[in-house]
Amino acid sequence: MINDWELVIGIEIHLELNTKTKMFSPAPNTYEAKENCNVSHIDLGYPGTLPLVNSEAIIKGIKLAKALNMTIDSEIRFDRKNYFYPDLNKGYQITQQFRPIGKDGLIKIKVKDQWKDILIERIHLEEDTAKSIHDDDYTYLNQNRASVPLIEIVSRPVIHSIEDAKAYVEAIRLTALALNISDAKMNEGSLRTDVNISVRKKGTNDLNTRVEIKNLNSISNIEKAIQYEMQYQINCYENNQTFEQCTKRFDEQSQTTIVMRSKSDSIDYKYFPDPNIPYISLSKQLIDAVNIEELPFARENRYLSLGLNNVQISQLINNIEYAKYLDSIESTDFKKSANIFFSEVVSYLNSNNLNIQDLLFTPRDCKDAIELLNNAKIDKKNFIKLIELKQNNSAHSIIDLAKNNQLYIESIVINIADIVADILKENSNLESQLKTDYNKALKFIMGQFMKKTMGKGNTAELNKYLEEKYL
């Protein structure tokens, strides 16, 4: 029975860093570039070339290590991992085998509204390989990805459910976004996931034969691959069948895992320290000077304490630019600002297919518009109109835009009793109608009231006055 078994999962995540240049060369690091345009002779391992270590990648590595509560190595050392594969022109990959930048960390994940810690063994810096594109007849290589900076994040085998595995990958993705070290897009390959899976009888500590599933490119595929592989392994054990330790891939068409290669014989990569890269000392002062941004679990708890709902919080954690904008609105009522931000600002962005970086309506403008709304100087229906006006007249202030476009409501003194008396005087049968057909009379009076006050009268106060006098 499946309920008698427990999953044992360890996850390796390859996270491409959003540095301006590559890990060991000055070639640009851009995803959108035409194939094989952003390539240096260093990336291709031409004889006589020397790697140049990207300091920005090291700082981003320190940030992630801090965010994951890791012990950070005092030295940066790089090693060569030697193997031949078509996507590796040099015949070796520069990585950190012996001295990873960070080790013994953890990350918080949330499953069913409960926080838990997942232990992480290590993170290390390395370079990416070229990208292989396959068709029926050929394999093409895009060398733009060669030497793109990577951080590999290796969890300990402490994940025991599909939900925890999904939450772990999502937590790493959101942490990378919060730290601004990667765009972490699984669909573009800047976050790639390898999942190691084995099963064991519940209540035991066995580490049975494991299978590695490579390059899962979505949370959905992670779930499907683990589900299929778990059932496959359980069926094997319950039917006294064996299977080899191997590497598999998930086939989306058949929704199954398929063997790529056996791991019965461990590959000897013949690691050795890279002779062309000197050791780089990381002083305590340098490490201490690297600041990290607010992490997702802390941001979520802060927003909860401010009264935001789960849908709003999810959007803010997944879109850091939204969170930065909202946090920059200097408001005494954060919850109200958030409601207006989502109902008006985000609606405007979505309707006009804009990113928030394209918005000329600044957080200060939003604060000013909210103050006008709070003081009844504009109608809520005109809030988006102010955003539109600011987008086309960025040099003008919000109050000027409101006044110059007849959106500003001037304060006027309204004596409800006097106005009602005038209406009744002008319509001789109206007072008796208030007693015989109140609702019909009320509708007429409200229309006349708004006409006399040029739309600026308070109909709620009018209604209260008439109820007290005639009902």
TrEMBL record:
Pfam families: GatB_N, GatB_Yqey. It catalyses: L-aspartyl-tRNA(Asn) + L-glutamine + ATP + H2O = L-asparaginyl-tRNA(Asn) + L-glutamate + ADP + phosphate + 2 H(+); L-glutamyl-tRNA(Gln) + L-glutamine + ATP + H2O = L-glutaminyl-tRNA(Gln) + L-glutamate + ADP + phosphate + H(+). SMART domains: GatB_Yqey. InterPro entries: Asn/Gln-tRNA_amidoTrfase_suB/E, Asn/Gln-tRNA_Trfase_suB/E_cat, Asn/Gln_amidotransferase, Asn/Gln_tRNA_amidoTrase-B-like, GatB, GatB_Yqey_C_2, Gln_synth/guanido_kin_cat_dom. One of its GO terms (biological process) is translation. Keywords: ATP-binding, Ligase, Nucleotide-binding, Protein biosynthesis, Transferase. One of its GO terms (molecular function) is asparaginyl-tRNA synthase (glutamine-hydrolyzing) activity. Its EC number is 6.3.5.-. The keyword Protein biosynthesis applies. Allows the formation of correctly charged Asn-tRNA(Asn) or Gln-tRNA(Gln) through the transamidation of misacylated Asp-tRNA(Asn) or Glu-tRNA(Gln) in organisms which lack either or both of asparaginyl-tRNA or glutaminyl-tRNA synthetases. The reaction takes place in the presence of glutamine and ATP through an activated phospho-Asp-tRNA(Asn) or phospho-Glu-tRNA(Gln). Belongs to the GatB/GatE family. GatB subfamily. Heterotrimer of A, B and C subunits. HAMAP family: GatB. This is Aspartyl/glutamyl-tRNA(Asn/Gln) amidotransferase subunit B. It comes from Metamycoplasma cloacale.
